[in-house]
Write the structure tokens for this entry.
Amino acid sequence: MSGKDGNRREGTARANVRCAEQPAARPPSIKDIARLAQVTHPTVSRALRNSPLVSAETAARIRHIAEELGYHASALARGLATRQTQTVGLLMEAGNPFAGEVARGVAEAAGERGYALLLVHAQEDAERAHRAIEEMVARRVDGIVVASPRARDLPLLEAMRIPLVLVDSDAPGKAAPAVMIANREAMRAVAQHLIGLGHRRIAYLGDRNGLRAEAARLAGYKSALGRAGIGLAPERIVACDGSPEAAMETMHELLRLNRPPTAVCCASDLVALGAMQAMRTRRLRVPNDLSVTGFGDLFFAAWLTPPLTTVRQPARQMGALAMENLCRLLAGDPLPAQTCLDAELILRGSTARAPKQESDFAE
């Protein structure tokens, strides 16, 4: 994916013949524009990059002055002046639908701001992951949006001393700002929904790669049960690697308990997909025998049988905001540790009232 063509054109050298007595006119600079517009140099730079930090009125005035002066900043000239390449990296998990929607938002926002986008797949193997990250940095990206939840990649990225913005994957003690949703509150709403349906044996099937987002979701689940006076059963709190295959195996473990759950809160829609498949292999009906919830509202959630009750994450908006925040970092503007967006509980057919007789399932 590339930025706007206008931001990628390089200046063309021309051989101009001038009389000795006629000195060459100095080309207009950002300083000239700033003086005439009565603003600072950084404000001019941001306006010419279409930064949202400059008001529409001020940006229009600056662009008009630049046009009147005949100012044309090529990508090469900007790179030499600012040591920026107008290219940003995106580290993401290929095949992850949530990351794919985040990538769409990042790409759209990058294109609007004249940035090219370099996609790098977050590799399963740690050594290959490090090589991929090092190659991305070697291409002199100005900054990186991280849409991968893998904790092991973050120390290497921080060691590269390059601006970072994380998407739903901030890690404790890390300095990089993150774009998040209120994970704790969202999962608490999910668990409260199940409690309101009469469920008491509610399990939690988590994603051990989820970093702080996962910890917040688990905390929300525990909070809801605690408020309802339901004791926590450690054997009903389990985790997998986040894939449907692993979730299926872990769900089988929950169903083999002496007192299996009547409902399960899943940390993601992919985890819920695996959990529901495990129930089908045991001829259990969703939601008659066991209610299931997801998290994310990925494209397939509404097409499952039955459709999945889940939390809608604005993944595309999160990606766009992450790119906007990265631009702010590159401009030297301060950012909060977290920028939180609203999430929404979507009620569908995978949840129902608890069975009247909460008897154990047959093996």
